[in-house]
Amino acid sequence: MPKQALKAARGELRRGSRELAFDARRNAGNARASFRVLVLSALVAALMGVAGWAFLAALRLATDAREAHLWLFGLLPLVNLATAWLYRNHGLRAQRGNNLVIDSTITGTPIHGRMALLTFACSTATHLAGGSAGREGAAVQMGGTIASNVATVFRVEGHDRRDLMMAGISAAFGAAFGTPLAGAFFGMEMCFVGKLDYSAALYCLTGSFIGNAVSRALGSPFAFQTISRVPPMDPSVLAVVIGAAVAFGLAARLFTFCIRTVKRLYARFFVNYLAAAGASGILLVLLFLGLGLHRYGGLSEWMVPAAFEGKTTLLDPVLKLVMTALTVGAGFQGGEVTPLFGIGASLGGWIGSVTLGDPSLMAALGMVGVFGAALNVPITTIMLGIDMFGASAGAYFVIVGFIGYLIAGHHAVYPAQRIVTPKRRSLKEDTALTVEGAYERHRQELEEMIDE
C-alpha cells in the first residue's frame, strides 16, 4: 500500500511539473507576443501623434484663412467635386471612411496607405471652404491606416493585428482631442455595440496616452471649459438631468437620421455622382453666404464656450445639425464628433439656462451626451466627461451616457459597427448584425406592416 501511494504521488508530481513547464512556455510565448504588440502600439501612437499634430495645425491654418476671407465658402462646389472624383477614381475603398477602419479591425482586411493622405488633404480642403465637419473622422482614418500598414510591415496577424488596430484608433482620438482616458476606451468600444474589448486595454491605453503626449509636445493646443458649479443630486436636478439625457439621445438619433436621409436623397435625384457633388456644394454656398449661416461652417468652435456662458439658443444646435448633415451627407470629408460637441453643448446650455439657471453643467452633459449616443460609446462618454471636466460630475456623466445610449437605439454614425449585445430585449434579433443591417431589418419590418 505505501508503495502504491508513493508511486501515485510520483505520478502526480511528474504530471504537475509537466503542467507547470507547459504553462511557463505558454506564458513566455504570450509575454513575447504581448510585448511585441505593445512596442508596435507605441510606434503607431508616436506616428499618429505627429500626424495628429500636423492635421490640427493644417485645420487651424484653414480655419483662420476662411474666417478672414469668407469668399472661400465659394470653393465648396469645387472641393466636393475634387473629393468625389479622387475617392471614386483613386480612393480604392477609402470612401467608406471609418467604416473601413472598423471592418479592417474586425476582419483583418488591410488598408492602403493612400487613405491617410486622401483624408488629410480632403478634410483640410473641406474646412478651408467652410464645410460643417469635424476632425475625428480624418484622425481615426489616419490612425487606422498607420496601424494597418505597420501590421503589414511587421507581419502582425490575427488577434494581435486587431489589438494593434484598436491601439491606432485610440491614438488617433487621444492625439486629436487631448483626452487620453477617453481615447483609450474609444478604441476598445468603437467597433461594437454593447461590447468593450478589454483584451486590447493595455495597447489602447498605451496608444492613446502616447499619441496625446506626442501631439501636445509638438504644440497641439487643447483647451477645455469648466463647470461653474455641480449641484447636489436632489430629485429636481435628477429629473432635469434625466429629461435632458433623453433629449440628447433623441438629438443624436435625429443627427444620424438626417445624414442618412441626405445621402439617400442625393443618390435618388442625381444619377451622376459629380452632378450630386456640385449641386450639394452650390446648396451649401447659398445657405452659408446667402442666408448668413457662415458661423455654422467648419468646426464652429465658438459654440462650446458660448454654451457654457449661456449665450446659445435652441436655434443654434438645430442650424449646426442641419448644416453638418448637408455637409457630411453630401460626401465632404471630415468627421462628426466636433459638430456633435457643438450641437450637444449648445442644446445643453440652453436647457440649463431655462431649467437650472446655470448653463455650464448641462452644456458639459450635452457636449459628451450627444456625442456618445450618436457613436454608441457609453463608457467613452463617461471617460470623456472626466477627461474634460473632472470627476466631480461623474455621476451625471454616467446617467447621461447610458440613457442617451439607450434612447438612440441601434442607430449610429458608423453603420459598420457590430451589434454584440442589443440595447433592449425587443431588439434581440439584431444580435450579430451591423448597425446598417439592423436598420435595413427594421425598415423591411415597417414596410411589411404598412403593406398589411
How would you describe this structure to a colleague?
- It contains 17 helices and two strands.
- It has helices spanning 2-68, 76-90, 98-107, 114-129, 136-153, 158-177, 180-189, 201-217, 235-269, 273-290, 303-308, 315-328, 337-355, 359-375, 378-389, 394-407, 435-451, and strands spanning 192-193, 418-419.
What best-fitting shape do the alpha-carbon axes yield? globular
Number of strands: 2
Q: What percentage of amino acids are in beta strands?
A: under 5%
**Uncertain regions: pLDDT < 50 for 5+ in a row?**
none
Class derived from helix and strand content: mainly alpha
Order of helices and strands: HHHHHHHEHHHHHHHHHEH
The average pLDDT score comes to: 94
Topology (elements, then pairings):
Elements: H1 2-68, H2 76-90, H3 98-107, H4 114-129, H5 136-153, H6 158-177, H7 180-189, E1 192-193, H8 201-217, H9 235-269, H10 273-290, H11 303-308, H12 315-328, H13 337-355, H14 359-375, H15 378-389, H16 394-407, E2 418-419, H17 435-451
Parallel strand pairs: 1-2
What distinguishing features does this structure have?
single chain; two-stranded parallel ribbon
